[in-house]
What does this fold into?
Amino acid sequence: MNALLVIDVQNGIVNCGDYKEELFLIEQVIKDFKESNRPVIFIRHIDDTEESPLNRSSIGSEIHPSIKGYSDYIIEKHTPSAFFQTELTKTLGKLGVDHLFIIGFETEFCCMFTAIAAYDRGYKVTFIKDATGTTNNAESYGMQGLDIKQFVGTVLRWSSVIEVVDYAEYAEKYK
It folds into this structure.
């Protein structure tokens, strides 16, 4: 069975920039999964430091209102990997999931770490790169011209173990 992981689409991240395109694609993938009765699992990053925009008691830690009503499950995490010390493995086991689709935020951290961790746990993984976003950019890393989504997509594709697609390829193959 297929399941969708929607990673860290939270106010404290989404409100940091203009992510209209990413949010549109994220919602399209979610709707595809909902229409075919496949599980949609939201991953919510919680940071315990008081000044963090993802602090549990802040509005920043809440799921962004554009997608809030779509979740079948919400799993909280404290690290980039949605698997590390969470209920995700148990939830996926109960559902009989063997193929995970990954979308959401912090492409080069939470999305990539979760994709790799999923593969390491025996799941088939499809990473929909243009349905991810990041608050970082080339300037953040001091790497002029860096396209983070393209870079992460290339690295994961070269691994030969994680399928990387853009939304159009996903829609053609899996819709």
Notes: Residues 20-35 form the longest helix (16 residues). The first strand starts at residue 2 and ends at 7. The helical segments are 11-14, 20-35, 88-95, 107-120, 138-141, 148-158, 167-174. The beta strands are 2-7, 40-45, 73-77, 99-105, 124-133, 163-165.
